[in-house]
Batch of 2 targets.
Target 1
Amino acid sequence: MRHWVEQRWYQANPGALAALTPLEQLFRRQVQRRGRPLRGREFGVPVMVVGNLTVGGSGKSPVVATLARWLQKQGVSVGIVSRGYGGKAPSYPWPVTAQSDPVEAGDEPVMLAQQTGCPVFVAPKRAEAVKALVSAHPVQLILSDDGLQHQALAREIEWVIVDGQRGLGNGHCLPVGPLREPAARLSTVDAVLLNGGRSAACDHPELTSALPFSLAISQWRRGDGVVQKSCPFLPGQSVHALAGIGHPQRFFDQLTQLGLAVTPHPKADHAVLTQADLQAEPELPWIMTAKDAVKLRHQLNAQHWVMDIEAVLPEALMTAFSQQLQQLGVSLHWGRSDEHTGPHPAE
């Protein structure tokens, strides 16, 4: 059923889902009554939200990780907050480290802690996570992984990430389409970014000025600790590929573009993974996303590879972002930016 619904969300015509138009109208009225999130500063430091307008993954977390590393290079101390989706902590707000259990903290927060070294806090009420983080760490800026629709979280910068392959789907709000808010919301944010570039699916007036960016492979990590920059596989080599992310096909396509013969194993976003998920015939090497590796880290060995990625963001965007930060009182001490991305630290 879920697959059937998503297919119609991302087709031009919603088909049978059009029968749910009265529910969509009710949803839109609820969004309108809720109003816009508070713009401003509540906890003494600026908050930047990196969110999306559609249900599911669009590439927010890689952008958050890349921004955090870039800011650290400029001498800015950064904290990250998240809802902690998929996890159930003993209490909230909950601090997250690279060693945290994703069952408690959620897979993406643990991944972000590993990739950035930043203090990370999770809470269903993100404002509580911000308050706890600021109280515990002397940060200059908070990055919120998602939270665009979290009304109680005051923010000063909003970026929206859109999947360039799927765009805004059929343009309808839930449940007829994938939109959490009407597309007009995009006209109120500071930047709209297209993950993977512009496709026919992005032929929407609200995406006219959106900026394309790409997710590039930064390194490969083997389950026994080996790290290398170059692809460890020869073109034509057969591999199993595991992806429990919002749009698994993007990951499989990236491997196919490297010339690999991929046997895909798509999982639901934030799916619980076990050793059984790494057992398949024939016996071949496995490649997985960093988010999935977080949940399988105790099962990985020399047969398993993690493909780390980073966002390559437009120079013009980063220049405007730098100016905006300085206007907000965040001082930058210019370091080496490497085209506005930073390397992943080895685990």
Note: The CA atoms of residues 26 and 82 lie 28 Å apart.
Target 2
Amino acid sequence: MGDWRFEARRGGGVSTVAEVRVRLEEFGRLAAEHGVPGAAVAVAVGGEVVEAAAGVVNRRTGVPVTPEAVFQIQSITKVWTATLVMQLVDEGVIGLGDRVREHLPEFRTADAAASDRITVEHLLTHTGGFEGDLWRATTAGDDALRRLVEDEVPRLAQVEEPGSRYSYCSAGMAVLGRLVEVKRARTFAEVLRERLAAPLGIEELAFDANDALGFNTAIGHAPQGDRGIWPLPVWATMPESNPAAGNRLAMSVRALLAFGRMHAEDGRGPDGGRVLSAATARAMRAARVPVPAAPVVPKAVGLGWEVYGDGAVVGHGGGAIGFARCSTSSQGGARRSRWWRTAATRAG
């Protein structure tokens, strides 16, 4: 997409809405220049929001992208999962230092002894020490996540001692998602809708293709021979089994922005009500474990969020075949005025 992002300014305040609008005038041109079939962006500066959209949700149908268009968010889902877990911490149901097996006795990796030492915080910070790339299909029903945790996670190698260092772990997020299901006695999708989407006023959200039919929904695009960049034959390229790590959850940039604003407002929803305690929201954005070999700026992981540089910016990305997405939040300026940005969502 090119370097269209907005940089945080130290000391002298933040980008203005006018500056954002000027930069986004290039959005459509950049999308076309880089061959992106469709993209959308929403940026909030204080209480004002600027949106832009370009291209189509599907080159086969030619339907335009709008700010309401729904795109899969993939691994950004991990921050939503972390937020659901931290709500349980706020309520005193679980603690960050609790061993996972205290609440989920069926959890274990291939090393039963090491598994008994893995804590909730280890999973939130990707320091559980076990193999993390787990997307194996289980069932297509409400028990898909349970089957993944009970049948597949126990086969994963315990590579190193829990807490040793950061290693990105989608399997760990699956375990946290299952923990949420058990504590709330609902499916992961039901809990996310009730505990996050509803209080944030989010309606443009889909967990599967059936949900997605109710919206202007983007399909992924990829190079396909003589056709060039063309729609994939299916909407979902990942199985149902790991919704907590980011397999199919889709939403509009407006929805993603509402979630980011809640975090930047220290846990307050659009109506002023509490979604998270202020202390918990801040703790999620605080660097805890360094991420080795970060390619651009020094990076650490907080409780779900990735923390960039000196901590003024947090974010998370997500991608799968045909999709790429990024959400970032920044706080800066002498008056601590806050601003948020949701980077381009693209099908391609």
Note: The chain has two domains: 17-68+190-347, 80-186.
